[in-house]
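Ticket 4471: requesting a sanity check on a complex prediction with adenosine monophosphate. Repro inputs:
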Amino acid sequence: MLNVTTIAGVRSRRRELWQRAQTVALVPTMGALHDGHLRLVDRAGELADEVWVSIFVNPTQFGPGEDFERYPRDLERDRELLATRGVALLFNPSTKEMYPRPGVTTVDLPELAGGMCGAFRPGHFQGVALVVTKLLAIAQPEVAVFGAKDWQQSAIIRRLVEDLNLPVRVEVVPTVREADGLAMSSRNAYLTSQERQAATVLQRALHAGEEAIRGGLIDGRAVERRIAATVAEEPLARLQYAAAVDPDTLQPLGTVTRRALLAVAVHVGATRLIDNLLLEVS
Ligand code: AMP
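Returned structure tokens:
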């Protein structure tokens, strides 16, 4: 596995592959890798000749008071995991390499970034959209692979790639879960064992929403209330939002008809967790 820290290094490898007519699938991550990330890597391997992974804890997507400084970092372990998974190139740039001077360019999709997590993390998706645009411009992959666990993020990326005509296919991989249903996340490492138990409430709440819809409830607000009520049953959990939205536009669904995305953000102790469920309603 090539370990590359500079943009020039990535570009040089990319030129070599073009000469050999070989394709690249890029998996952007912030590291502290778990099986969810590795599923993305495996999927990427099915879609291109080489899998490239980036590990960059992007400061511009963290707000003041968020966990940028204490975000889990374990580069040595990540490197070993990726090497044994057949990854050809790891791009692990410094902040200086990615942001040599204060940026003035913004990438914003207000309609998609304003609600859900965006309402509670101002600037977060502008940071995500900017760094992903930069990573796509640097690596110029044929395919970029993201996880459905961060649904709003993947919807924003799909749309920005479409709107900006970026020559990349966006692949979204279903959420990988622990045995008890908790979505895998680097932030799960923050949870105490009691909180870890309590964290299963996210999945339960989404299923309560699903059951309500399958039972005939079609009022989007009422579905959200059903999800919220389930979260309220868990003493260690505090709901940030429950949403029933259109999976592509992320606009709230007045009436749940065909496709719906149910999404929640919950604080379990001091840790903020998110999860979602895509529903096809017949
Ligand atoms: P992160 O390192 O948290 O920025 O995540 C990097 C990529 O992995 C993003 O596309 C995430 O959506 C994806 N990802 C994170 N957790 C999971 C999971 N449990 N299942 C599937 N994809 C995931």
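Notes from triage: The chain has a mean pLDDT of 97. Leaving this open until the requester confirms.
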